[in-house]
Specification:
Length: 152
């Protein structure tokens, strides 16, 4: 019985270390977005910050749609974030599951400090995934959104 319990514990540990357990939004962010955006503060002049901005962008349906499009199609060109210019290419993250993308965006939204931070749903991501858009079209969408609801 003791040997069997030890065997079960060993298998459970191997599965856990192999990544077979559910991933947290923080680890999904770190492994995918954190490579460039770091802890959410970005890199001055090259990669915009996310923390304190995603919740504001996600406050409207148009903003949530834009965020989903950014993750599914990427975005290119010059943007302003917190009053600072950035000119970088954001690649698409279509290889991630809808649930994982939604959890990353919702986690980032919650980090903005709002009491009722907006959530992004897997269906928001699925709708964006189904659309055929280029990174340039997402940039145009950003410009239109910025005119309607200024993006921080």
């Amino acid at each position: 019985m003791r040997m069997m319990r030890r065997g079960i514990m060993t298998v459970a540990a191997v599965l856990l270390l192999a990544g077979c357990s559910p991933k947290s939004p923080k680890s999904l962010y770190g492994n995918n977005c954190g490579i460039c955006h770091h802890g959410g503060d970005g890199m001055p002049g090259s990669v915009p910050p996310l923390v304190g901005r995603i919740d504001k962008i996600a406050a409207t349906p148009e903003g949530r749609h834009y965020l989903a499009d950014v993750l599914m199609h990427g975005v290119s060109g010059r943007i302003m974030a917190n009053g600072q210019p950035y000119n970088a290419e954001m690649p698409p993250f279509r290889y991630l599951k809808d649930e994982d993308v939604a959890s990353i965006l919702t986690w980032l939204s919650a980090r903005g400090g709002r009491e009722n931070a907006p959530a992004i749903s897997p269906s928001d991501i699925a709708a964006a995934r189904a659309a055929a858009k280029s990174a340039g079209q997402v940039a145009d969408e950003r410009d239109a959104l910025n005119r309607q609801h200024p993006i921080p």
